[in-house]
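Researcher: Please predict.
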Amino acid sequence: MSELVRRQRPSERTTAAPSVAPVQEPEISTAGRAGKAAAEGRVEGQPIPADMRASLLARVRGSATLRGVLDEVGKDFPIVWGRATYHANGTIYLDARKDEADGSFMHELEHLRAFVQNERPSVRKLDRETFVARSMDGEIAAHAQAYVGLHELGKTRYADLAGYNDFQAFLRREHPDLAKRRSGAIDSAVQSTLLMDVAKAWVRTQMETNPKWHTSVSEADHAEHYGAIWDQHH
């Protein structure tokens, strides 16, 4: 799938509640739908089951890059059901309508890390240009992190994370050495660093030039989206 997010019907769009942080990160997962019975048993705001949480975190820790992010977060954090997959005020919400969340969870972990480390741009303190630029940097880092994490887990295809298959095709064509996973600790660390740089550059190009890459919140491109957020607060 080449789009960053699928276009949503109005009834599916999720707007952050007034109590959450002012910047709502766009959802990037298009994971498979949950069964009707399972979805109906998932209550918004309630923690996901303990066994599901343990399994999700164990899979994510299979990526060296994501292990580092979890270590940097450095604390337990809530993972609860939501109307979409997003981060808000130290909590990660998983879309209750979907059964698979690894890619979007990896994405939101970067937003959580930035929140914990107090690195998120202030919409009230920064000028418009700086706020938009830093917000874009954060979103690009989150997308790239999800791509690198899935790559480290050996996913050569992953249709439920928008843009990932296109990125993998780009790697095989332009960076065949990076497309191959390596087992040595040093080689793996070097590869992950290089892969992250390539992923960030690729995502930035898509965000800035590909009209199909838009936010799930407003269907505007990301710069317009963050600019509109700044305008609302000034």
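Model: Residues 21 and 131 are 14 Å apart (CA to CA).
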